[in-house]
């Protein structure tokens, strides 16, 4: 049995499922609203663990072969309490967290693509890991005070961009049989006009130097293998700061790229350090041919790579889960 944990609308999960069906593989998809539970029977004669989906027996833990943690966390049945005190609610929360961690631990012991609890990745942890491995990152300021931001802004000759410290939000706002429309959080340019309007204190934000790009790379990483895509985002004003704003534009060229071996080695070392075996890494190549790492997306959005680079990533994921 193969488990796929996916958000309710996922083009990639459907394509991987088609490959599994073609290969006559037994699998089950857990969507965001589906509940998973484990029933434990532990004794000296042997352990038996049953897996339940929405309260119904699904399979034995021993029959579970592999798991794909794709854009959805573990969801358990939670009782609704309306009249509990804060201390009592705190206990209930600890009880639920213990249940989730126990399930997560058992799923991670199987062949698991992706890591539960890491789908919304902390960019600060990513930047620290890059520094420890001596991987080049942009000059960065993380602060909530305008007094810190003003001198940093003045020092960056090419400008400053601002982004969330967590993974950018994304959700599907429209769906049909042949088309999906998504909304995404984006990276934005900070200019002097915007700087003047910023209050003295604000939510913790991540500011970085705006790099002088030669081109941009998005690398899908799958268990030690890199699938790189080049993106000429710097050639157009609509995609210069955030290439995602140009994904629907035919003028923005994208294609295959031959990634240097030393950069592949850096990516492997970084993903091992972060305990991630799948994800997309965004990299800027500057006009001085420096490879500057921006961030990692553990959920690994790669649908545009399939068409632009002719990578059959859906098959590669299915193969990982089957073998």
The SSE string, one letter per element, is EHEEEEEHEHEHEEEEHEEEEHEEHH
CATH topology of the largest domain: D-amino Acid Aminotransferase, Chain A, domain 1
Sheet bearing the most strands, described?
Answer: 5 strands, antiparallel
CATH architecture of the largest domain: 2-Layer Sandwich
CATH class of the largest domain: Alpha Beta
Overall SS class = alpha+beta
Overall form: globular
Number of strands: 18
Number of domains: 3
Notes on the protein architecture:
With 323 residues, the chain is of the alpha+beta class. It folds into three domains: 2-113, no CATH class; 121-135 and 212-311, 2-Layer Sandwich (D-amino Acid Aminotransferase, Chain A, domain 1), CATH 3.30.470; 139-210, no CATH class. Helices cover 28% and strands 33% of the residues. The protein has eight helices and 18 strands. It has helices at 11-22, 86-109, 123-132, 146-155, 192-197, 261-273, 303-309, 313-322, and strands spanning 2-5, 27-30, 36-43, 46-53, 56-60, 66-69, 111-113, 140-145, 160-163, 170-175, 180-184, 188-190, 201-209, 213-222, 225-231, 254-256, 278-286, 291-297. The strands form five sheets. A five-stranded antiparallel beta sheet has the order 16-15-14-17-18. A hairpin with a 2-residue loop joins strand 4 (46-53) and strand 5 (56-60). Helix 1 (11-22) packs across helix 8 (313-322). The longest helix is centred in the N-terminal third of the chain and has 24 residues, at 86-109. It is globular, with a radius of gyration of 22 Å. The termini are close together. The mean pLDDT is 89.
């Amino acid at each position: 049995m193969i488990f796929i944990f996916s958000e309710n609308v996922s083009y990639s999960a459907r394509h991987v499922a088609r490959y599994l069906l073609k290969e006559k593989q037994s699998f089950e998809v857990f969507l965001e609203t589906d509940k998973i539970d484990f029933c434990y029977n532990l004794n000296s004669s042997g352990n038996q663990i049953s897996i339940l989906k929405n309260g119904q027996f699904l399979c034995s833990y021993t029959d579970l072969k592999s798991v794909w943690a794709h854009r959805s966390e573990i969801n358990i049945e939670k009782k609704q309490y309306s009249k509990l005190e804060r201390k009592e609610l705190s206990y209930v929360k600890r009880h639920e967290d213990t249940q989730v961690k126990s399930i997560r631990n058992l799923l991670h012991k199987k062949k698991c693509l992706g890591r539960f609890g890491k789908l919304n990745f902390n960019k600060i942890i990513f930047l620290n890991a890059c520094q420890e491995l001596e991987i080049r990152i942009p000059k960065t300021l993380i602060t909530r005070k305008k007094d810190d931001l003003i001198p940093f802004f003045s020092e960056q000759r090419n400008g400053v961009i601002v982004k969330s410290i967590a993974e950018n939000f994304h959700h599907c706002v429209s769906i049909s049989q042949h088309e999906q429309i998504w909304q995404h959080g984006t990276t934005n340019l900070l200019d002097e006009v915007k700087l003047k309007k910023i209050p003295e204190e604000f939510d913790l934000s991540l500011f970085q130097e705006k790099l002088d790009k030669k081109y941009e790379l998005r690398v899908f990483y799958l268990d030690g293998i890199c699938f790189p895509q080049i993106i000429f985002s710097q050639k157009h004003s609509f995609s210069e700061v955030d290439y995602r704003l140009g994904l629907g534009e035919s003028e923005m060229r994208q294609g295959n790229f031959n990634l240097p071996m030393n950069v592949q080695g850096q990516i492997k070392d970084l993903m091992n350090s972060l305990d991630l075996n799948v994800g997309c890494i965004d990299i800027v190549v500057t006009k001085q041919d420096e490879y500057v790492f921006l961030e990692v997306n553990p959920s690994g959005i790669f649908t545009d790579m399939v068409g632009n680079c002719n990578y059959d990533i859906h098959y590669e994921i299915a193969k990982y889960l089957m073998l």
